[in-house]
Amino acid sequence: MRPFRIDIPQEALDDLHRRLDLTRWPGELPDVGWSRGVPLDYLRELAGYWRTGYDWRAAEARLNRLPQHVTEIDGVDVHFLHVRSPEPTAVPMVLTHGWPGSFLEFLDVIGPLTDPAAHGGDPRDAFHLVIPSMPGYGFSAAPRQTGWSVDRVARAWAELMRRLGYDRYVAQGGDWGSPVSLKLGLADPDHVLGVHVNMLATFPPQDPAAFEGLPEEDLARLRFAAHFEQDGAGWRKIQSTRPQTLAYALTDSPVGQLAWIVEKFWEWTESSKGPEDAVDRDWLLTNASLYWLTGTAGSSAQLYYESNRLDEEFVATWAGPWPLRAPVGVAVFPQDAVRPVRRWAETILPTLTRWTEFDRGGHFAALEQPELLVGDVREFVRPLR
Predict the structure, then answer these.
(1) What is the pLDDT of residues 268-301, one digit of tens each?
(2) Per-residue confidence at 314, pLDDT binned at 50, 70, 90?
(3) Confidence of residue 312 (pLDDT cuts 50, 70, 90)
(4) Structural contact between residues 327 and 338, judged by C-beta atoms closer than 8 angstroms
(5) Pick from 353, 352, 372: which is nearest to 362 by CA?
(6) What does 139-205 look like in DSSP terms, one character per residue?
(7) pTM of this prediction?
(8) What are the tens digits of pLDDT across the range 99-137?
(9) Cα(99)–Cα(201) distance, integer angstroms
(10) 3-state class (DSSP) for residue 369
(11) Count of CB atoms within 10 A of residue 157's CB?
């Protein structure tokens, strides 16, 4: 394992600024808002701030205060944060992000999880944290061969935790981090204490009787899912089928990369006027800068092709069943892009022990509602310690 420090060359930042200055802007129909994509005026203003107001070096300095490492697993250099708690009885936990997020999603939960006493909590709730960047994302290298599916990522995480000397640990994640964490529980059952996810996909069973007596709240979730599949899943279809073609545009245009990412922070968060209702503007640009400066628009999309290309692959990746030995906890946030039905979750998760429905928050739980997520993880893990 090698220590890692972020050090983006100034030439790369100068190139970003030059490209922002030379952006070729499209036209826009009047009065369409966000209905057809990111509004022109909004993106112009945000890109202008990226060029003249945002400070990557400040973000870089903050990140470099965290202990970062790289280790090669299965032919890929994996970047990860490893933040140990001062508490001797802390439980190890691996946190897994998804797309279009990154390890940056977890910055605000590191302190409360590793040192609860310093954040008004009980020191007995402490965790040692391992926060890897998925292969092809951020500072993790892009795989040089095909086959890096969710299952392979889960096996890599099991090896990472073994190398760190953690015999018993918890897995937590949202978006891609949800199936990775569940697959990790299946791949390493002798060492995974429990799995907590803040996004769970439940698919309608074949038996029509499964729909009988569903409350209106669950029926609304099904209507949302049907509409989302028709209107909101375009990014998934493209990244699952033609990630290489998409990569040319996003790797060449920082504004294109920004728009592709920021749209999801508008659609999948609890926001009314724009994504900055839910997510800090500088954080949004740090995340977009991470994708841009590492050139990982294409490599991050490959996971979709490996795991979601066909309908049966999509269902196999997300739908379970999940016959884990370890207990499972599920946190449900109302503005998430995926809204599960508990009755169906109980059929695919035989070890479901905790189900929490929150009244606020969306897809990026650690970023949007860090206190709620931290509290739920603490409650889930207490009986497992």
Answers:
(1) 999 888 899 999 999 999 999 999 999 999 999 9
(2) confident
(3) confident
(4) no
(5) 372
(6) TSPPPSSS---HHHHHHHHHHHHHHTT-SSEEEEESTTHHHHHHHHHHH-TTTEEEEEES-------
(7) 0.96
(8) 999 999 999 999 999 999 999 999 999 999 999 999 999
(9) 16
(10) coil
(11) 28
Q: What is the C-alpha to C-alpha distance for residues 180 and 95, in angstroms, rounded to an integer? A: 10
Active site residue 363: yes
Which two three-digit tokens encode residue 331?
A: 């946190």
Q: State the average pLDDT over residues 379-385.
A: 97
Annotated catalytic residue within 42, 54, 291, 304 = 304
Q: Label residue 385 exposed, middle or buried (CB < 10 Å: 0-12, 13-18, 19+).
A: middle
How would DSSP label each residue in 281-297?
A: HHHHHHHHHHHHHHT-H
Question: Omega into 67 within 30° of 0, i.e. cis?
Answer: no
Amino acid identity at 101: G
Q: Of 42, 196, 363, 376, which is the active-site residue?
A: 363
304 is catalytic: yes
Catalytic residue among 175, 188, 218, 376: 175
Q: What SS3 class is residue 91?
A: strand
Torsion of CA 100, 102, 107, 110, to 10 degrees: 120
Residue 169 among the catalytic residues: no
> Checking DSSP bridges between strand 352-357 and strand 328-332, what pairing results, if any?
parallel
